[in-house]
C-alpha cells in the first residue's frame, strides 16, 4: 500500500566564494495519486515562484509493507 509521496527538486546556486553548489528543495505530502506529469508540473510552478532551474526532479514513494 502506498503510504506517502514526496518530491525533490535539485538545482545549482553560487555560494559566497562564487563556487557552484547543488541544492535541493523537498516537498512533502504530495498527493499519493500524483503521477510523474503532476510532479513535473509542480516543479514548473516552483521554478516560476523561486527563479530556480531544476536540473533533476525526483519522485519519492513510501510504501507501507506491514503494520
UniProtKB/TrEMBL annotation:
It comes from Aliicoccus persicus. It comes from the Bacteria. This is DUF1659 domain-containing protein. Residues 4-65 form the DUF1659 domain. InterPro entries: DUF1659 (IPR012454).
Amino acid at each position: 500500500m502506498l503510504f506517502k509521496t514526496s518530491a525533490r527538486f535539485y538545482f545549482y546556486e553560487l555560494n559566497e566564494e562564487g563556487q557552484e553548489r547543488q541544492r535541493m528543495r523537498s516537498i512533502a505530502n504530495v498527493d499519493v495519486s500524483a503521477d510523474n506529469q503532476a510532479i513535473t508540473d509542480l516543479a514548473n510552478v516552483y521554478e516560476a515562484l523561486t527563479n530556480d532551474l531544476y536540473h533533476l526532479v525526483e519522485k519519492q514513494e513510501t510504501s507501507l509493507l506491514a503494520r
